[in-house]
Design brief:
It is built from three helices and four strands; from the N terminus they run βαββαβα. By secondary structure, the chain is an alpha/beta fold. It has one domain: 3-Layer(aba) Sandwich (Rossmann fold). It has a four-stranded parallel sheet with strand order 2-1-3-4. Helix 1 links the parallel strand 1 and strand 2. The longest helix is centred in the N-terminal third of the chain and has 15 residues. The protein is globular.
């Protein structure tokens, strides 16, 4: 099973986005989140990193391991940005 990790500025946003992503891919991937103030390098070892803001990405990118795919989804996944998640799922044969 794949691992998706969300980095958010706060717990409310992280939890809401976690629920939204789980509704799309919950049976194929474990979805976890950390707030920006809690995140560490161990959390970022995953198959896909989802940042809830550009600020979060800029703040955490220095500890993001090489070779980890990431997207900035915003506070919720915008359907325009969902297309970035779909190739990840296709690549890993989830549909």
């Amino acid at each position: 099973m794949k691992k998706i990790h969300i980095v958010s500025l706060g717990h409310t946003t992280g939890s809401a986005l976690k629920q939204q992503i789980e509704s799309f891919v919950g049976e194929y991937a474990n979805v976890e989140y950390s707030t920006l103030s809690e995140v560490n390098e161990t959390d970022l070892v995953c198959d896909l990193l989802v940042y809830t803001s550009d600020f979060g990405y800029e703040s955490a990118k220095h500890i993001q391991p090489d070779g980890i795919d990431s997207i900035v989804a915003g506070r919720v996944i915008n359907h325009k940005r969902l297309e970035k998640l779909l190739p990840f799922l296709k690549e890993h044969r989830y549909f």
